[in-house]
Amino acid sequence: MGWERAMEDIAYIRSLAAELGGAERIERQHRGGRYTVRERIDKFVDPGSFMEAMPLVGAADYEDGNLRGFTPGAYVMGLAEIDGRPVAIGGDDFTISGGSPHNVHKGAGQFSQPLALQYGIPYIQLVEGVGHSSKSDESAGHMGLPGGQQWWRGAELLRRVPVAAAILGSVAGAPAAFALMSHFTVMVKGQSQIFPSGPPVVRRAIGEDIDKDALGGSYMHVHKSGQVDNEAESEDDAFEQIKQFLSYLPNTTSDVAPRVETGDPPDRRPEDLLTIVPPDRRRGYDPRKLIRLVVDNGEFFEMRRHWGGAVITGFARLDGYSVGILGSDPHVIAGAMNGDAADKYAHFVDLCDAFNLPIVIFLDMPGFMLGSRAESQATMRRGVRALIASAEAQVPKVEFCVRKSYGVAADAPHSVGQPHGLNLRFGWPAGEWGGIPIEGGVAAAYRREIDAAPDPDAHRQMIEERLLRLRSPFRAAHRGDVIDLIDPRDTRALACRFVKLAQPMLAKLALRPKRPVRP
User: Fold this and answer.
1) What is the mean pLDDT of the chain?
2) 69 within 8 A of 97, measured Cβ to Cβ
3) How many angstroms separate the Cα of 64 from the Cα of each of 17, 59, 444?
4) 84: domain CATH number?
5) Last residue of some domain: 247, 279, 305?
6) Residue 56: which H helix or E strand, with range?
7) Are 12 and 67 in contact (CB under 8 A)?
8) Which of 3, 26, 216, 313 is deepest in the core (most CB within 10 A)?
9) Do residue 374 and residue 233 come from a single domain?
10) Tens of pLDDT along 232-263?
11) Domain that holds residue 121
12) 238 and 282 together in one domain
């Protein structure tokens, strides 16, 4: 007879596992506009590439040696491929006790996380779980003290491989913490929430009556707190954003991202760059259009667009090589660095340094944001963190001074990562640079002279006009502040040349010991 009966039993248990929490709960998942975890994995990875781990783990009920019932562990995980690239992937099954079953525990720490670490491949989390359940305590007969040992692996992942998380429903407790232990997080607008505990616990603990979307939805955490990087319109959009994010990174922090043939000539001269910055220094321009004109095929993957908006961060390619992009948005507090922008800047520089990506900077920064609100947000202290991140980062940087570069805040892009490092700086014709913006500097340094003048406003304007003549980028070039003043249309060619020349250095930097990139 052989092993036919055993094969039938395995197939039967697998079929039970595939039923998840049952037809009714699957239907409830679909009514809420959400896929099941198995549907998510099928839609995310290359067809036929998913190799599941531990599908037979669950709560099994046997009587006289016969299986009477089976509840699968509420976590599906394994090995798969995305565009032919191996990844470790796992996700919560919300149809089984909200992803927190009280009678069986199966999690990423048993397979997918160790696999990502050992094999050196990206790790992807599809998160929709509510963490610890009080039913677990009742089932165990006691309440245990959390050991904390599960977090070291998350820190190790952040140090060694790309980690991305999609927050796809209500997420609380430990799953929320795991989701945020990622290099990139995305949540679905109107569908996802993330918090330490949900509204029932909040109401019972502190008396605040609030719905789950207001408490921890995408507006709260993508637009206001900055806790989550990006917002997606749908689960499919979230999957696509993770794919784009991973496409720019190497498999580990000990590698360099491979070159991709993009078909965009490195010597292309975008004519629109000549006129994109208006002659009137008080007028803005479209900084994202500027970036798209320079990078390969206009493809720019932006992170944290809705938070810390004075600074633009994202990934692109130049001559097929992956790069980190830092820019300024003159439409948001005139491009000044406030506390949120400083945190955003520091995190992104750390991320690029960890994954050996050269950084291309388009600078138009009038300095730190001023005023009582900026002071209440500890702007200078957070700004110093940005300065430290830039000074410590050893990846090569090339900077194009598009317009303004004033004060300590603008020193962050200028900083280099080693005592004898070199930060390549090129000036555009609209460039103006100094220790302090002229208007504010005149008001402070010439206050007594202005107050004593018969017409203070006219006298102040006279001094400002006199000093404005000193801001000429030609004077800065004479002093050697920049390598060269360039035709803006040459920006792409120079950036592509820089990135190509940086590759041997990046290969050496890849061998450095790395520290975790803090979320």
Assistant:
1) 86
2) no
3) 22, 16, 89
4) 3.90.226.10
5) 247
6) none
7) yes
8) 216
9) no
10) 999 999 999 999 999 999 999 999 999 999 99
11) 34-51+73-247
12) no
pLDDT(305) > 90: yes
- Quick check: is 140 in a domain? yes
pLDDT on residue 502 = 94
Q: What is the pLDDT of residue 209?
A: 92
Within 10 A of 179 (CB to CB), how many other CB atoms are there?
29
Please give the C-alpha separations between residue 485 and each of 271, 289, 328, 426, 476, in angstroms, as whole numbers.
17, 21, 19, 6, 9
Based on the fold, state whether residues 128 and 169 are members of the same structural domain.
yes
- Residue 133's Cα: distance from chain center in Å? 30
Residue at 200 is within a domain: yes
Q: DSSP letter at 368?
A: B
* CA–CA dist 440, 16 (Å, integer): 71
Residue 106 scores a pLDDT above 70: no
Q: Are residues 490 and 376 in the same domain?
A: yes
Question: How many alpha carbons lie under 13 Å from residue 384 in its C-beta half-sphere?
Answer: 3
Residue type, 392: E
138 or 329: which carries more pLDDT confidence? 329
* β-strand partners of 123: 88, 163
Q: What pLDDT digit, counting tens, does each position of 147-161 carry?
A: 666 788 889 999 999
Q: Which of 166-175, 220-229, 265-274 has the lowest mean pLDDT?
A: 166-175
Residues 47 and 133 reside in one and the same domain: yes
Largest alpha-carbon pair distance within the chain? Answer: 111
203 and 307 both lie in a single domain: no
Question: Quick check: is 385 in a domain?
Answer: yes
Q: Per residue in 313-368, pLDDT tens?
A: 999 999 999 999 999 999 999 899 999 999 999 999 999 999 999 999 999 998 88
Cβ(391)–Cβ(376) below 8 Å: no
Number of structural domains the chain divides into: 2
Residue pair 125/108 in contact (Cβ under 8 Å)? The answer is: yes
Residue 240 sits in the same domain as residue 275? no
Asked if residue 211 belongs to a domain, the reply is yes
Highest-scoring range by mean pLDDT, 67-71, 228-232, 515-519:
228-232
Among 103, 122, 499, 509, CA closest to 318: 499
Q: Are residues 146 and 192 in the same domain?
A: yes
Spatial distance between the Cα atoms of 323 and 133, rounded to a whole number of angstroms? 43
**51 in helix, strand or coil?**
strand
